[in-house]
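Q: What would this complex look like in 3D?
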Amino acid sequence: MKLFWHRFKRNKLAVIGGIMVLTLFVIAALAPVIAPYDPKVIDRNQILEPPSSKHFLGTDDLGRDVLSRMIYGSKISLAVGFVAIGLATIIGIIVGALSGYYGGWVDRGIMRFIDIMLSIPTFFLILAVIAFIDPNFWYSILPRWLSFMLEKIIMDPNILNIMIVIGLTSWMGVARLVRAEFLSLKEREFVLAARALGASDLQIIFRHILMNSMSPVYVSAVLGIAGAILVESALSFLGLGVQPPTPSWGNILALGKANIEIAWWLSVFPGLAILITVLVYNLVGEGLRDAIDPRLWGGR
Amino acid sequence: MKELLRLNNVKKYFPAKSGQVLRAVDDVSFSVNEAQVFGLVGESGCGKSTLGRLILKLMEPTGGQIYFDDIDVINSNREEMSRIRKGLQIIFQDPLAALNPRRRVIDAVGEALLINKIAGKGELKGRVVHLLQKVGLDSDALYKYPHEFSGGQRQRICIARAIAVNPRLIVADEPLSALDVSIQAQIINLLEDLQRDSDLAYVFISHNLHVIEHFSDVVAVMYLGRLVEKCRTDELFKEPLHPYTEALLSAVPEPEVGKKTRRIVLEGDVPSPVHIPPGCPFHPRCHKRFEPCDKTIPAFREAKTGRWVSCHLWE
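A: Here is my prediction, written as structure tokens for the whole assembly.
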């Protein structure tokens, strides 16, 4: 752990990335406190104002403050990234563990299924699923207490829909990583020793193998968050993601496209926000990867 | 002496490239009595470790039977298996690889007690401390991780874990070869003490003939997955019957300066276990080969009283 910190700290870009990620978290958490205006309040006298001391990043075509909308939008982006990748990671770990631990026909079946999933262009799959699934569908199949909780936290059924769909289409990489770790770890002597002591399959999987195969999973999760944020923005940009008036970086950008000749600030600032967020997550992910075990990834 | 472990014609074949078969263990039969040290020697890659793992059912054998305390190990049910787990344990060659790097000593040793319901959560700490004392470690070790110990201490932890269930037989798979020479002596003394105190039996796998001579009651020599010779240790070292054993013993360095030894140098390398030579597997390298050696496999038979050998010279 000490060595890990030492190696991580040596990577300046990763440290900067880490600080930026934390900053984004603080901004998202304190959105109601630091946003100068209500993001949904329409002001007909302030339509498409350029950046000024009153509106730092200008206003949109309904006179709403872009900075405030972006601050609230960061909440959505982070939430979508974390929940979607959390779901993908859990699915990936379970599938990969089953595949790697049991081997044989279970493994062959799962790997073929992963190949099929990977051969489908994910983005179009997501588009198709979102177009066909009623956003309230998830609330109807989830247990009542869970859907009640989700409704309280996430509010918009659309956003939950996006989170779940992204999660269900991005677990394959994690599953492959976990499978590879399981394949090599299950023959290790400490696992054999546990079997000789009579440990059950579940005890061996969770206590002995999974504990030692998490490092690449953390890395892939951090990198995956960047991808999920990008997908969410793209969907919202196309009008299939977060629906206005709820702000998201993607749908602000879509408004910007409509007004790009007269209001550059509507496109540039959310675009930059997406770019920087994805970049810092990638920096942190790569820093983690190198710090965890340089040998693991072919000495990059 | 009661028979504790019995192997009948145990085989383990692995599938190799393009439909070939790797014969790691072929037709091995022997038995180990209570409180007996059964030494198993052979070059690396001759199937010693595979055999050790087969005994504990860490792998499924391709053929043959294994009985532990009259329980059929291979076809055992759940309840029988849990009895086997309590009676039969293993110590590995590399103690660092044999300990989960993310679990503390109390977790590793305590797991043995909890799984087999020997101790409950409340008395766990006391029991683990007691076990650690038995192997010569003190209680500060409890909350440390494996990487904080030296090689010898790690092997002691592995031994503590193995004896936690009060086994009657321990398969020791080259427990000394990853350790410094000075530490090897300590560990072998520890294994001897444990044997005296609780009538343990060992299947002691090693390629160090000095250790085998010192420690074991009976020795079996393995070559390419088969036993070539088996008898009491003193007899084997006095008068080896199989030419391979002879060559092995002649290769042991003599501690006395100036003492003349006749060294038998084997030609060539050990053949791959995928392409085992026809007839006696040892014949291409044997300095005493003659007519039938490349045609028929010699049977493993009792050539003199108590002396089992598989060689055409003794048919």
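A: To summarize the key features: The radius of gyration of chain A is 22 Å. Chain A has one domain: 80-292.
Q: Very helpful, thank you.
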